[in-house]
Write a structure and sequence with these properties.
Length: 262
């Protein structure tokens, strides 16, 4: 079960490892390398709403960034077995994310939250939205009637999601975020000052020039590359769908406390 209250850094690191949010994660090495290779080979479904062109056409360059920013094994000859996320890198990124949330709160900025992984991260984003609203931020309400070829773009508990067949949908696409931003412009409403998201929602927002911060798994390299290039401001490495969404509660508590939003 989650540890109570707000954990210390050491307690959070221990919790991340025990719940496999970081440390020895469930994603196998061969899956990671396959995704890095597909991104490098130009498979846009792995670009997460970004325009990477040919800048990352060498999968070894992708692996090097993932080792540095996520903590996967940096040995290109290690091809099968367990892979890792460095929990210290996770907490470092949470602290950078907290600083950006603090800036949003101090400026009472407009913030849009969205997730392509509602089974794992919906409540992390919901709690963040509630804390930002309490601090004076405007949580962006998305326009009605938006859809993509995957489904309808909806908003639940202040978090934008994709709905398909009355089910919240897992998506890597940037098109739902693009639909929201076009919808806001069509209504003459201002765009967000900050997007807090994951998957293609975060990548698309950063690609279009918005301040974007993200969570990403070790088999989703595009957002770490975007952080390295400055397109996305922060990418927090974590397993984005562990056995219970409650396992993310201590992470959320630590984040909001570090941002002064608890």
């Amino acid at each position: 079960m989650p540890i109570p209250g707000t954990p210390s850094r050491a307690e959070l690191v221990d919790h991340l490892v025990r719940t496999r949010i970081a440390g020895d994660v469930a994603t196998p090495r061969e899956n990671n390398l396959s995704h890095y290779r597909k991104l490098a080979n130009g498979d846009r479904s792995f670009w997460l709403g970004l325009e990477l062109e040919d800048r990352w056409s060498d999968e070894q360059d992708v692996l090097a960034v993932m080792a540095e920013r996520c903590g996967v094994n940096d040995d290109p000859e290690y091809r099968y077995g367990q892979d890792t996320i460095d929990p210290e890198l996770t907490v470092d990124a949470l602290e950078r994310l907290a600083a950006r949330l603090r800036k949003a709160a101090d400026g009472e900025q407009r913030v849009l939250l969205a997730t392509g992984h509602p089974g794992g991260l919906l409540d992390v984003h919901r709690a963040t939205a509630a804390a930002l609203r309490a601090a004076g931020c405007e949580i962006v309400v998305i326009p009605d009637g938006l859809q993509t070829n995957e489904g309808y773009v909806m908003q639940f508990a202040d978090v934008a999601v994709l709905e398909h067949g009355a089910t919240l949908w897992h998506t890597h696409s940037g098109e739902p975020m693009r639909a929201i931003l076009k919808g806001l412009e069509a209504e003459g409403r201002p765009l967000p000052d900050l997007v807090v998201a994951d998957h293609g929602w975060a990548g698309c927002a950063g690609q279009l020039g918005l301040d974007s911060v993200a969570y990403a798994d070790c088999n989703d390299p595009a957002l770490f590359l975007a952080e390295a290039e400055g397109t996305v401001q922060v990418t927090v490495p974590l397993d984005d769908h562990v056995t219970s969404p409650r396992h993310y509660d201590p992470l959320t508590a630590y984040l909001l406390n570090a941002a002064g939003l608890a």
